[in-house]
Amino acid sequence: MGVEYIEFSHAKDGLEQQLCNCASSQNLVEVASAEHLRHNAAANLAAEWKLGVKEWLVLACVSLLMTMDAFNATVLLPLITPLGNTLWIEASYLLASAASQPFSVMLAAILGVGPIALGAAVLATVGTGVCSGSMSLACLVPGRFVQGVGCGGVIATSLLMIDEVIPYPHQARITGYAFQTRVVGATVGLIFGGLLVDHAVWTFYASLVFCALGLLVIPFAVELRTYRRIAKCKACELDWQGAVLTFMGMGCLLIGVNWGGILYEWTNWHVLVVLGAGAASIIVLVLYESLWSVHPLFSSTIFSSIARTMLYLSSLLHGFLLSCHLLNCALYLRLIQELSSAFAGLGLLTVVSPALVALILTERVRHLRNPSTFPWMVRIGWLCSVLATGFFIILDDSTPPQVWVFILLGAGIGHSLLISGHHRGVHHIHQPNRDSEHYSASSILMYSLLRTWGMCIAVPVGGAIILHRIVRQEGAESSHFDFQAGEAPLSQQGRDQKEMLVGGFHMLWRVMVGASALGGVSSLFVK
Questions:
Q1: How many structural domains is the chain composed of?
Q2: What is the pLDDT of residues 325-350, one digit of tens each?
Q3: Containing H/E element for 296?
Q4: Which domain holds residue 155?
Q5: What is the DSSP string of 231-281?
Q6: Smallest Cα–Cα separation from 65: which of 116, 106, 30, 110?
Q7: Does 3 reside within a domain?
Q8: Taking the complete model, does pTM exceed 0.90, yes or no?
């Protein structure tokens, strides 16, 4: 009896365990089926949504405005040859663009996107008009600054338009279309800038066409009547101080880097005061954002994980590398290879145009839209950038066209992968939050801001590296170095100046390889 009881007990326990396992398996199947049905329902709902008239108007408006910004940023690259002018003309535009983006976002939170978008387009038009009528550098630089303020506001409000009108599952696709038009604008700017070398003022007249079209479409795309996304009584809680400190700190540091070792010695009080003011502003910014700001510009929710932080660091470094490649490759083609402006603009297309192909493929190929794919796109992009920038070191005045074309194309492929990977990445990590009590810049806006700051940093840093090498070798003031494209004399002095310039470029290429390697390391933490 004892043995029979034990056998019966074991049989009973086994039967209960089997029934429990069957029930658990059935529950898992039901949960999986429900999850699959929900996924299919969400996919069907996403597939059913289509652009309406309002959405098409917003897309047309955003596309025109982003095309205008890209055109303005690249149209002067094939035209500029003196190094000093390059620094001020491009730096003023990019500095104003980076500084105006957070202010535009906060003003849009109070007054609405429509009035700020229209005001930014008007400012861009005014700046373009000043540039078209400028007769000297002293008039051109302020015009470029005003133009940059307007274009920075245009970028910020364009992204806000997409965020307000387009449902979140489709924002990556629509933003991808806008980025494609931005690449087209950069391409057209390089071509126009090269072809209109003898009539440079027409480059700004062409920009006025984009300004006019944008001003025409904005009233139909967005609501211009004043409305409030957040209460006006909380306007003072927005991070105005953080935006001002960021502008002051970065501006002073960049000016100090531009002055040091070129206009003044590094120990000169002019350089020390400017650098000290910039460093103090950055320290105060960090303390203010950490301790006192109610709605910080650099919110901890945006940098909530290592993966997010590394993605934003990667975007900052990519902006630095992209600006260095475009600006300094233009100088290399004009001053070292002695190409005409038209051919220099066409040569730069090898850096810009692959991004359009990559964005189109990312949209068309389903596998490339997978969230697990974008980290590898960023990593492969940085690998291509490291290799291509490393090959830049062999470039000199005797490099044949078939060599430098493929080197620039390799850099362009790296940039195309980085643009597509960052674009998908910031939308993948973005968590939509409409709570007005916790209003802060979204991930895509932070990506745009940091990328623009990276491009801005590259201009004075790259120019300072080249000019510092020239001044150190020549033992004279930088103003004494007056090397113009196509005017290099056959004398020994002309050859020596070209050799010094090649040496300056080689030093800059090494710095860019280091920046690319740092970007590659940061991409290892992106997931």
A1: 2
A2: 998 898 888 888 888 888 888 888 99
A3: none
A4: 51-239+294-523
A5: -GGGGGGB-HHHHHHHHHHHHHHHHHHHHBTTTB-TTSHHHHHHHHHHHHH
A6: 116
A7: no
A8: no
